[in-house]
Design goal:
Keywords: Metal-binding, Transferase, Zinc. The chain is an alpha/beta fold and about 270 residues long. The chain has nine helices and 14 strands. It has one domain: TIM Barrel (Alpha-Beta Barrel), CATH 3.20.20. Helix 1 packs across helix 2.
Length: about 270
């Protein structure tokens, strides 16, 4: 079985210091959280960026400042910027971090009702456009899917040449408006991707660690972090992203799965460090 790739989603665009005071906003805070996660065993940092007051932004210069600062402390870590942005942003605004030519970036494969009147819009043409830009820039997309229909969309656009093989999926499970975080639904998504594809599971809230165990056993990979869950256990707030990663490492050790370092993660995912 392949070694386990752990991704740390250190801050997200929605979670705030009101949820957990250790959620990072500033460049220095992002570096702190990335380094703690990396030292604990994460080989990928999934990155959103904020202004110092916590406002989400896709500004290319802000991404560059944070990415450069993280790489100064963790030179070999894989940084995976998000192209999700925030509700209402244009396609080109969301794509700004891909202009920095990262090794990976996320590509959301469908529209989702986040709650209330908030709609995370990803039309078919948006997905095609993002796919074309990532191919043009030599960036491997992590195909974020919140439901089975989004896998179907990715597979159809792969056949049309907008997404290249081998594909790497991220099953984001337990989000309002998306698929639940049950083992039944994990099995459904897992059985719907090609045999040569890899996948990561991001369980939201209480689903984070049960789904991590399922992925560890199945041979998949795991994402944890403040973006998805700010608690280390029921009723106990996590002190850092590193603490969340450490828990996954303990679970993997108990289940006999070795942890991939960044070089091994690149080999598994077919990446070449830029």
């Amino acid at each position: 079985m392949e070694k386990l790739i752990i991704t740390a989603a250190i801050c997200g665009a929605e979670v705030t210091k009101e949820h957990n005071p250790n959620v990072p906003y500033t460049v220095e805070e992002c570096v702190r959280e990335a380094k703690l996660a990396y030292e604990a065993g994460a080989s990928i940092i999934h990155l959103h960026v904020r202004e110092d007051d916590g406002t989400p932004t896709q500004d290319k210069d802000r991404f560059k400042a944070v990415m450069d600062a993280i790489h100064k402390e963790c030179p070999d870590v894989i940084i995976q910027p998000s192209t999700g942005g925030a509700v209402g942003m244009s396609n080109d605004e969301r794509l700004q971090p891909t202009e920095l030519n990262p090794e990976m970036a996320t590509l959301d494969c469908g529209t989702l009702n986040f709650g209330g009147d908030e709609i995370f819009e990803n039309t078919e043409n948006t997905i095609k456009y993002f796919g074309e830009k990532m191919i043009e820039r030599g960036i491997k997309p992590e195909l974020e899917v919140f439901d089975k229909s989004m896998i179907d969309m990715a597979l159809r656009l792969h056949k049309k040449g907008y997404i290249q093989s081998p594909m790497h999926f991220d099953f984001v499970m337990g989000v309002n408006g998306g698929i639940s975080g049950t083992l039944r639904d994990f099995s459904f998504l897992r059985g719907s991707i090609p045999a040569d594809a890899t996948y990561t599971v991001a369980g939201i809230g209480r689903y984070e660690f049960p789904l991590a165990v399922a992925a560890i056993i199945d041979g998949g990979h795991v994402r944890v972090g403040f973006e998805d869950n700010t608690m280390i256990a029921k009723g106990k707030m996590a002190e850092s992203n590193g603490e969340l990663v450490e828990k996954v490492v303990r679970l993997a050790n108990e289940l006999g799965r070795e942890i991939a370092n960044p070089a091994e993660a690149r080999e598994i995912l077919g990446l070449k460090q830029k």
